[in-house]
Amino acid sequence: xxxxxxxxxxxxxxxxxxxxxxxxxxxxxxxxxxxxxxxxxxxxxxxxxxxxxxxxxxxxxxxxxxxxxxxxxxxxxxxxxxxxxxxxxxxxxxxxxxxxxxxxxxxxxxxxxxxxxxxxxxxxxxxxxxxxxxxxxxxxxxxxxxxxxxxxxxxxxxxxxxxxxxxxxxxxxxxxxxxxxxxxxxxxxxxxxxxxxxxxxxxxxxxxxxxxxxxxxxxxxxxxxxxxxxxxxxxxxxxxxxxxxxxxx
Length: 249
Ligand SMILES: Nc1ncnc2c1ncn2[C@@H]1O[C@H](COP(=O)(O)OP(=O)(O)O)[C@@H](O)[C@H]1O
Ligand SMILES: [Mg+2]
What we know:
The protein is α/β, with parallel strands linked by helices. It has one domain: 3-Layer(aba) Sandwich (Rossmann fold). About 35% of the residues lie in helices and about 15% in strands. The chain has a 7-stranded parallel beta sheet, with helices on both faces. Helix 1 crosses helix 11. Bound molecules: adenosine-5'-diphosphate and magnesium ion.
């Protein structure tokens, strides 16, 4: 399953969401590929910090505008249970390539109506990709909600006008996300009992459920100990976390 984190605005949390989804999947013992498709290379920098600290981390590769071509990501993805692609902050050939490959496109977005307006520009690109691949699912992730504010509580409603479904899970503005990434970690490995960790876990569960409604994610490991996990389908399920194959363009 391939999740593309996209949108044409910078600083909305694409890399933060990408790294947290990948890290949560890793915590479930999945084979995780994190594709850095952004020249800013946030994911690659984060991965280098994690490597220097000797931390468990997903496989990270850099890919560009040809990532959707045969022999590229569609081929590579077969060796992984969960693939996340972190996209650039502009509407270009890389974003199109991501949408031509992903099962689910996520659009992180700030909580205000103004943030929602900025999403309007991506809809034509999404529609274009869906003409080729009608099965492409897409949703908004609300990020940077200020906890305890009325405006924050209204964020999902504000964004529902943008023309895309809005995920139930909302990420708040939390310093833990920034500190975790700076340490080469995710919220769950940096501060396992934090609110940010709970949000990241909920986000992964919701995304996984959206991708594979029949499958429960494998049991999460103790934080920071991804190897101690078991992967496998829910008892009675015929599917495995990596079994949902989609046609690629
Ligand atoms: N929920 C959040 N709480 C606090 N800081 C955040 C949150 N989401 C993103 N940030 C911070 O905002 C900045 C931009 O986030 P980033 O994920 O790099 O965005 P993008 O990839 O869309 O450019 C980073 O410094 C990141 O740590
Ligand atoms: Mg980024």
